[in-house]
Amino acid sequence: MSANHDDRHHSPDPHGRALRLGVGGPVGSGKTALVAALCRTLGPVLRLGVVTNDIYTTEDADFLRRAGVLDPERIVAVQTGCCPHTAIRDDIAANIDAVETLEERFGPLDLVIVESGGDNLTATFSRGLADQQIFVLDVSGGDKVPRKGGPGVTSADLLVINKTDLAKHVGADLTVMSRDAAAVRDGKPVLFTSIREVPEVYSVAEWVHGVVQSWAHTQAHHPHGPVVPTANA
Amino acid sequence: MDAALLLLADSRLPAGGHAHSGGAEQAVRAGAITGTEDLARFLRGRLATTGLVTAALSAAACHLAVLLGSHGEDGGRPWTEPSAAAAAESETDARAAWRELDAEADARTASPAQRYAARTQGRLLLRSGRRIWPSPVLDTLAQAVPDGVHHPIALGAVAAAAGCSRHDAAMAAAYTSITGPATAAVRLLGLDPVVVHRVLAGLVPDLSGVARTATAAASGTVEAGVAARGTAAEAVLRIAWEELPAHAAPALDLLAEQHLRTEVRLFVS
Amino acid sequence: MGVTTGGTTEVTPVQAIGAAPVRGGTGRRALFARAAVATALSGGRTVLDTLRSAPPLTLRQTGPGTVHLVATAAGPLGGDDLGLSIDVAPGTVLTIASVASTLVLPGPEESAESVLVVDARVGAGATLVYAPEPTVLAAGCAHRMVVRLTLEEGASVSWREEIVFGRHGERPGRCHARFDTTAGGVPLLRQEFVVGDPAVDASPAVYGDARCVGTTLLAGPAFGTPPGEAVISAGCAVLPLAGQGTLVSALAPDAPTLRARLTWGETQILPA
Q1: Which chain B residue's Cα is nearest to C240?
Q2: Cis peptide before A14 (omega within 30 of 0)
Q3: Alpha-carbon distance B7 to B120, whole Å?
Q4: Is the Cβ of B189 closer than 8 Å to some Cβ of chain C?
């Protein structure tokens, strides 16, 4: 038995593990719904694990388990002690532990999604925890939010603007949001969704599948070989 | 004091400590902590019981790490000392020595919820500690107790790898035994953080006393074991860890178990 | 060990081998005492091989395999040096109880500690039930209690300890109790209780507003299987230990409530 096989303290070789995808954004923007949708759409083609960071106890994890989108064992909840942003940015130890526990128990995995607790516009994932991150906004916060920027909006690898079905009710102009986001995001993608209307979130799932494939491609020394099936999502 | 102690005791050390309240969240929920006066009594009692026990285990682990680490491959360590001969003769003995100390921590932790919290924190600390201060001793410890060693043992071993003394290790354990719950209470009750720090400042003499007592207990225990040795390997395995303090805090045990059974909670423990 | 109203109590040694007064004073003299009980297996039954009293520790056989501690002197008093040795031979069964609670009192010299050391060995396949009445810490006492319990493979034990912080409305004296249990050479439970330290007494982390603390340690095949996880109720936690055993731990405002909580906790263990 290799030295690190029986050793849960070992940090795995970055070339031999799943892509870690952070999903962050303000409270109520639809993070958990997006994670559920991704599990539903990508579950048949990718080997998945999910880590939730609830402000209160295990509500999001319980929601995902009830949604039946993934084997409940593959959903792990991390408590964050009143500070959701600390757990994804300053002290990522508990999240890393949860991710590695999932990989050890169910690995090899293709993708581990880490959903942050709902927080403010400044909360982003540490690069030590997430290889790629999605920031989720919703239109009901008003169409000025992208213009205001903040690290989540400007630096996330993908910006998702959700609840487009509500735009007409709250007087939000999607064109303005799209233009403002593009201006602060330096060419990084922005996708509009209405998870309520299109629960498969094809556009986001396609983006995620793409980054997982790129990730696998970079893993020249992957001990398990390429882990991403070639089937289209 | 070694400057590395400042890094080790800092709440910003990325080792998962921020998510533990040490029973404070449940005590707040139960109405046992409502303000700074209750909090001061809570912290003083916590320090005198759990704080002392963890400080002694941490000092003991630091001592053991030095004994084991001064053996063989790691001659360049600043903390190598002449007692190298007392180190375990093999990796197997070293792992057995760690497991013995870990079993002593188990015997002092009657509550399963507290054991779970201690092992979770220990696993996270050791994971970060091995990346910050790489050391073969820490690798051995991680392999000896793969699911996570008790936190004070991880703390003592990491302290040794960072170049800290036993007394530093004890101080770090005693300090974190009260600062974690104090911070949690600030967040949960909206207490004035300056007033809470005044409470902590008032506990400084207690902290010093606990660290001193804990270090003396650990040193006495180890030295007795080493003095009575046959071979070096036997010496490490013969240390009478039972002499270490074992102060119980029944209310903390109850709080820890109640906390785990509470639906809505912010902290892990 | 028994209730006393204080003052001089006549010492009537009953089989008082090994008891000797060691120091003078205004009350009764401080005592040095070493009492012992040991069982043996005789024709498949438990017999008492040794039953040695030493006041104030007086042992009486009250049934087959049952011994009671009875009061033949006040105390422990400050200055007393008391030891009780219990040896339960492999395959035998012993129950130790007491007829009344133990009131620990200050001695004639205020600074002198009373010390009680109980050393118990339970042999392979043997069973020990140790269930004395509570220890009450009277004002001004200074007591040290040490229990060393050694379980061999397959031994069973039910060990109850109850400490009451002073008589009704009384501030307790000082007490430092230490319990060490090993099973098959491996530590099972190590606990110390300190009473009378202002840093600890009123702390919500330690005793809260309780006036008594108690534990029952249950281990071994005779006492069933530990619950899969901890069970809790008001003031009581049933805690499966890391090793093979369960600790029932309780806090209470008074001794009857403490006993009720411990008894409830003991019933949470799944029957053998």
Answers
A1: B112
A2: no
A3: 20
A4: no
Size of interface A-B (CB pairs under 8 A): 90
Which residues 6+ apart lie within 8 Å of C256 measured at CB? none
Q: What's the CA gap between C126 and C157, in Å, rounded?
A: 8
The Cα A200–Cα A181 span in angstroms is 24
Residues B24, B185: Cα–Cα separation, whole Å: 6
Q: What are the backbone angles phi and psi of residue C13, rounded to the nearest 5°?
A: -65, 125
What's the DSSP call for residue C134?
P
Interface probe with B: pick from A1, A4, A8, A9, most Cβ of B within 10 Å: A9
Q: How far apart are the first and last CA of chain A?
A: 37
- Tally of residues, chain B: 269
Span C8-58, pLDDT tens digits: 333 333 333 444 444 444 468 889 999 999 999 999 999 999 999 998 999
> By CA distance, what is A6's nearest residue in B?
B146
> Distance (Å, rounded) from C-alpha B13 to C-alpha C118?
45
Q: Flag if A82 and B187 touch (Cβ within 8 Å).
A: yes
Which domains are present in chain A?
16-218 (3.40.50.300)
Concatenating the DSSP letter of every residue in chain A gives: --TTTT-TTPPPPGGGS-EEEEEE-BTTSSHHHHHHHHHHHHTTTS-EEEEEEESSTTHHHHHHHHHTSS-GGGEEEEE-TT-HHIIIII--HHHHHHHHHHHHHH-S-SEEEEEPPSB-TT----TTT-SEEEEEEEGGG-TTHHHH--HHHHH-SEEEEE-GGGHHHHT--HHHHHHHHHHHHTT--EEE--TTT-TT-HHHHHHHHHHHHHHHHH-TT-TT---S--S--
Distance from chain centroid for Cα B258: 23
Domain B4-260: top CATH class = mainly alpha
Backbone angles phi, psi at B134, to 5 degrees: -55, 135
The region that residue A83 occupies, defined by phi over 0 for left and psi between -120 and 50 for alpha, beta otherwise, is: beta
Interface touch A79/B268, C-beta < 8 Å: yes
| Segment (H or E) for C256 | helix C255-266
Measured between beta carbons, which residues in chain C are less than 8 angstroms from residue B45? 199-200, 202-206
pLDDT, position B114:
97
Residues in chain B, pLDDT under 50: 71-83, 85-88
Question: pLDDT tens for residues A222-231?
Answer: 555 444 444 4
How far is it, in rounded angstroms, from Cα C261 to Cα C236? 6
Closest CA to C148 of C85, C102, C94, C97: C85
Cα-trace Rg, chain C:
18
Quick one: which of C100, C118, C176 has its CA closest to C144? C176
